[in-house]
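A.,

Following up on our hallway conversation. C-alpha coordinates first:
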Protein backbone atom coordinates (compact mmCIF):
# COMPACT_ATOMS: atom_id res chain seq x y z
CA UNK A 1 0.00 0.00 0.00
CA UNK A 2 2.32 2.71 -1.24
CA UNK A 3 1.66 6.43 -1.23
CA UNK A 4 1.20 8.72 -4.25
CA UNK A 5 4.58 10.28 -4.97
CA UNK A 6 5.22 13.82 -6.07
CA UNK A 7 5.50 14.33 -9.83
CA UNK A 8 8.86 13.46 -11.36
CA UNK A 9 9.34 17.12 -12.34
CA UNK A 10 8.52 18.39 -8.84
CA UNK A 11 11.68 19.85 -7.27
CA UNK A 12 10.84 17.98 -4.06
CA UNK A 13 10.41 14.57 -5.74
CA UNK A 14 13.97 13.50 -5.02
CA UNK A 15 13.87 14.82 -1.45
CA UNK A 16 10.66 12.83 -0.83
CA UNK A 17 12.30 9.76 -2.37
CA UNK A 18 15.29 10.03 -0.05
CA UNK A 19 13.04 10.27 3.01
CA UNK A 20 10.92 7.24 2.07
CA UNK A 21 13.39 4.90 0.37
CA UNK A 22 13.49 1.32 1.67
CA UNK A 23 16.51 -0.97 1.51
CA UNK A 24 14.85 -2.84 -1.39
CA UNK A 25 14.36 0.49 -3.25
CA UNK A 26 17.99 1.34 -2.56
CA UNK A 27 19.21 -2.00 -4.00
CA UNK A 28 17.08 -1.42 -7.15
CA UNK A 29 18.40 2.15 -7.49
CA UNK A 30 21.96 0.89 -7.02
CA UNK A 31 21.67 -1.59 -9.90
CA UNK A 32 19.95 1.07 -12.04
CA UNK A 33 22.80 3.52 -11.30
CA UNK A 34 25.41 0.86 -12.19
CA UNK A 35 23.58 0.41 -15.50
CA UNK A 36 23.45 4.17 -16.23
CA UNK A 37 27.14 4.59 -15.45
CA UNK A 38 28.18 1.65 -17.63
CA UNK A 39 26.14 2.89 -20.61
CA UNK A 40 27.38 6.47 -20.35
CA UNK A 41 30.99 5.48 -19.84
CA UNK A 42 31.24 7.79 -16.84
CA UNK A 43 34.01 7.12 -14.34
CA UNK A 44 32.13 7.56 -11.06
CA UNK A 45 32.70 5.51 -7.95
CA UNK A 46 29.29 4.69 -6.51
CA UNK A 47 28.71 5.09 -2.78
CA UNK A 48 28.46 1.79 -0.92
CA UNK A 49 24.99 0.32 -0.43
CA UNK A 50 25.59 0.58 3.30
CA UNK A 51 26.32 4.32 3.02
CA UNK A 52 23.55 6.76 3.86
CA UNK A 53 21.82 7.97 0.70
CA UNK A 54 21.87 11.52 2.06
CA UNK A 55 25.70 11.57 2.21
CA UNK A 56 26.62 11.29 -1.46
CA UNK A 57 29.20 13.28 -3.39
CA UNK A 58 28.35 15.92 -6.02
CA UNK A 59 29.59 13.75 -8.94
CA UNK A 60 26.72 11.39 -8.05
CA UNK A 61 24.11 14.16 -8.57
CA UNK A 62 23.81 13.60 -12.36
CA UNK A 63 23.10 9.92 -11.77
CA UNK A 64 20.46 10.91 -9.20
CA UNK A 65 18.76 13.09 -11.83
CA UNK A 66 18.78 10.22 -14.33
CA UNK A 67 17.20 7.92 -11.74
CA UNK A 68 14.37 10.46 -11.44
CA UNK A 69 13.86 10.61 -15.21
CA UNK A 70 10.63 8.72 -15.94
CA UNK A 71 11.97 7.62 -19.34
CA UNK A 72 15.33 6.13 -18.34
CA UNK A 73 14.03 2.66 -17.55
CA UNK A 74 13.36 0.96 -14.24
CA UNK A 75 14.78 -1.73 -11.99
CA UNK A 76 12.67 -3.57 -9.42
CA UNK A 77 13.66 -6.21 -6.90
CA UNK A 78 12.34 -8.56 -4.26
CA UNK A 79 13.94 -11.13 -1.96
CA UNK A 80 12.54 -14.59 -1.30
CA UNK A 81 14.09 -17.55 0.53
CA UNK A 82 17.65 -16.27 0.20
CA UNK A 83 17.30 -15.28 -3.48
CA UNK A 84 17.37 -11.72 -4.84
CA UNK A 85 15.06 -11.45 -7.87
CA UNK A 86 15.47 -8.51 -10.25
CA UNK A 87 13.44 -7.30 -13.22
CA UNK A 88 14.01 -4.38 -15.59
CA UNK A 89 12.20 -2.29 -18.17
CA UNK A 90 13.88 -0.57 -21.10
CA UNK A 91 17.32 -1.57 -19.80
CA UNK A 92 19.77 -4.33 -20.55
CA UNK A 93 21.79 -5.65 -17.66
CA UNK A 94 25.31 -6.83 -18.41
CA UNK A 95 27.22 -9.49 -16.52
CA UNK A 96 29.48 -6.66 -15.32
CA UNK A 97 26.43 -4.81 -13.88
CA UNK A 98 25.41 -7.95 -11.99
CA UNK A 99 28.94 -8.64 -10.75
CA UNK A 100 29.25 -5.10 -9.35
CA UNK A 101 25.96 -5.53 -7.50
CA UNK A 102 27.04 -8.93 -6.16
CA UNK A 103 30.13 -7.30 -4.63
CA UNK A 104 27.76 -5.12 -2.60
CA UNK A 105 25.20 -7.79 -1.68
CA UNK A 106 27.77 -10.40 -0.74
CA UNK A 107 27.38 -14.14 -1.08
CA UNK A 108 23.82 -14.68 -2.29
CA UNK A 109 21.83 -16.11 -5.15
CA UNK A 110 20.49 -13.72 -7.79
CA UNK A 111 17.85 -14.32 -10.48
CA UNK A 112 16.79 -12.04 -13.33
CA UNK A 113 13.04 -12.25 -14.01
CA UNK A 114 12.99 -12.00 -17.78
CA UNK A 115 9.58 -13.37 -18.72
CA UNK A 116 7.44 -10.63 -20.27
CA UNK A 117 8.62 -7.92 -22.66
CA UNK A 118 9.10 -4.22 -22.02
CA UNK A 119 5.33 -3.73 -21.88
CA UNK A 120 5.27 -5.84 -18.73
CA UNK A 121 6.49 -3.50 -16.04
CA UNK A 122 9.35 -4.66 -13.82
CA UNK A 123 7.16 -5.02 -10.71
CA UNK A 124 4.78 -7.27 -12.65
CA UNK A 125 7.68 -9.39 -13.94
CA UNK A 126 8.63 -9.97 -10.31
CA UNK A 127 5.11 -11.14 -9.41
CA UNK A 128 5.08 -13.46 -12.43
CA UNK A 129 8.49 -14.88 -11.45
CA UNK A 130 7.34 -15.41 -7.85
CA UNK A 131 4.21 -17.19 -9.09
CA UNK A 132 6.33 -19.41 -11.35
CA UNK A 133 8.53 -20.28 -8.35
CA UNK A 134 5.47 -21.02 -6.20
CA UNK A 135 6.35 -18.15 -3.85
CA UNK A 136 3.62 -15.58 -4.62
CA UNK A 137 1.58 -15.30 -1.43
CA UNK A 138 -0.74 -12.46 -0.48
CA UNK A 139 0.79 -10.12 2.06
CA UNK A 140 4.23 -11.73 1.85
CA UNK A 141 5.86 -9.77 -0.96
CA UNK A 142 8.02 -6.68 -0.59
CA UNK A 143 9.10 -4.91 -3.75
CA UNK A 144 11.75 -2.27 -4.17
CA UNK A 145 11.94 -0.14 -7.27
CA UNK A 146 14.21 2.52 -8.68
CA UNK A 147 11.10 4.64 -9.41
CA UNK A 148 7.49 4.84 -8.21
CA UNK A 149 5.23 2.32 -9.95
CA UNK A 150 2.29 3.20 -12.20
CA UNK A 151 -1.38 3.10 -11.19
CA UNK A 152 -1.97 -0.24 -12.96
CA UNK A 153 0.95 -1.86 -11.13
CA UNK A 154 -0.22 -0.26 -7.88
CA UNK A 155 -3.62 -1.93 -8.26
CA UNK A 156 -2.12 -5.40 -8.84
CA UNK A 157 0.37 -4.94 -5.99
CA UNK A 158 -2.46 -3.82 -3.69
CA UNK A 159 -4.53 -6.87 -4.72
CA UNK A 160 -1.65 -9.05 -3.54
CA UNK A 161 -1.12 -6.87 -0.44
CA UNK A 162 2.48 -6.38 -1.52
CA UNK A 163 4.63 -3.86 0.30
CA UNK A 164 5.99 -1.12 -1.97
CA UNK A 165 6.97 2.49 -1.40
CA UNK A 166 5.10 4.69 -3.87
CA UNK A 167 3.27 5.10 -7.15
CA UNK A 168 2.85 7.91 -9.65
CA UNK A 169 -0.28 9.17 -11.38
CA UNK A 170 0.99 9.42 -14.96
CA UNK A 171 -1.59 7.41 -16.96
CA UNK A 172 -0.35 4.31 -18.77
CA UNK A 173 -2.33 3.33 -21.88
CA UNK A 174 -3.69 -0.22 -22.06
CA UNK A 175 -1.48 -0.96 -25.07
CA UNK A 176 1.59 0.09 -23.02
CA UNK A 177 1.04 -2.31 -20.10
CA UNK A 178 0.93 -6.12 -20.08
CA UNK A 179 -0.99 -7.97 -17.37
CA UNK A 180 1.31 -10.35 -15.49
CA UNK A 181 -1.43 -13.02 -15.45
CA UNK A 182 -0.86 -13.88 -11.80
CA UNK A 183 -4.54 -14.26 -10.99
CA UNK A 184 -6.31 -12.86 -7.98
CA UNK A 185 -5.42 -13.85 -4.42
CA UNK A 186 -7.94 -15.93 -2.45
CA UNK A 187 -8.98 -13.09 -0.14
CA UNK A 188 -9.98 -11.06 -3.20
CA UNK A 189 -11.86 -13.92 -4.93
CA UNK A 190 -13.93 -15.03 -1.93
CA UNK A 191 -14.05 -12.20 0.61
CA UNK A 192 -17.06 -13.75 2.41
CA UNK A 193 -15.16 -16.97 3.10
CA UNK A 194 -12.22 -14.98 4.42
CA UNK A 195 -14.44 -13.03 6.83
CA UNK A 196 -13.76 -9.74 5.02
CA UNK A 197 -17.38 -9.05 3.99
CA UNK A 198 -20.51 -9.65 6.02
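Then the amino acids I'd put at each of the 198 positions:
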Amino acid sequence: MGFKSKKFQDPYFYEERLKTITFFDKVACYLHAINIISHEGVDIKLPRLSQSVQNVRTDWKNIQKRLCDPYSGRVSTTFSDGVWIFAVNHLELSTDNINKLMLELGDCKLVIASEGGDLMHAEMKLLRALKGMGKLKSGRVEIGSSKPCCLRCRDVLNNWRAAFTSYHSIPVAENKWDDPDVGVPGWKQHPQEMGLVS
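The helical segments are 13-20, 23-40, 61-68, 95-105, 122-132, 151-159, 186-189. Curious whether your intuition agrees with the design.

B.
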